[in-house]
Amino acid sequence: AQSVTQLGSHVSVSEGALVLLRCNYSSSVPPYLFWYVQYPNQGLQLLLKYTSAATLVKGINGFEAEFKKSETSFHLTKPSAHMSDAAEYFCAVRFSGNTGKLIFGQGTTLQVKP
Amino acid sequence: DSGVTQTPKHLITATGQRVTLRCSPRSGDLSVYWYQQSLDQGLQFLIQYYNGEERAKGNILERFSAQQFPDLHSELNLSSLELGDSALYFCASSPLVAGDTQYFGPGTRLTVL
What we know:
The complex is a heterodimer.
Chain A: E1 3-7, E2 10-14, E3 19-26, E4 32-38, E5 44-50, E6 56-58, E7 64-68, E8 73-78, E9 87-94, E10 103-104, E11 108-113
Parallel strand pairs in A: 2-11
Antiparallel strand pairs in A: 1-3, 3-8, 4-5, 4-9, 6-7, 7-8, 9-10, 9-11
Chain B: E1 5-7, E2 10-13, E3 19-24, E4 31-38, E5 42-50, E6 53-57, E7 64-68, E8 74-78, E9 87-94, E10 103-104, E11 108-112
Parallel strand pairs in B: 2-11
Antiparallel strand pairs in B: 1-3, 3-8, 4-5, 4-9, 5-6, 7-8, 9-10, 9-11
């Protein structure tokens, strides 16, 4: 079955440290991949997306993600965490087909310590 | 601000009742999506409409229904409400039927007592 898995429901980093949020998908065909961020009491905001162009995708707020087909992964990184990055992050996948249906991972809460 | 609006922001109701959630997509977007976010199920796709027609259906209960009107706004109707229906309901929109970015509204928080 097509699915997406985020490893680690909670990640804690110190301010200035590397942020690494993991996302793996299961599909025989590379899908479209997205990372969304949700701040408390707000909707989801798109950070970046992979749509079969460059495998290294740069997004907003200094985030980037690399699509690795051999590992079926799309991990999100940021070199230096800021306090304002504290939020919940969702990896989402759109598999092939003529609909926009997104399947979301369970989410990872990022805590940034001063 | 994504440009997607949802009303109401909060809704508190009792079991067995019926409610209607409303969504206005971004100007020009033809697709509207509904998602449910709950603590136990996470974010789940419910249904997609494209230019007034149902396009895809996900984990939507039979007690739930949706429609998209000629002006492209959408409504999600939830009936015979149960405690477990308490959740955050998001609407998203996109220009096309598939493949492009979905922009999410702020959500409607439904509490069933």
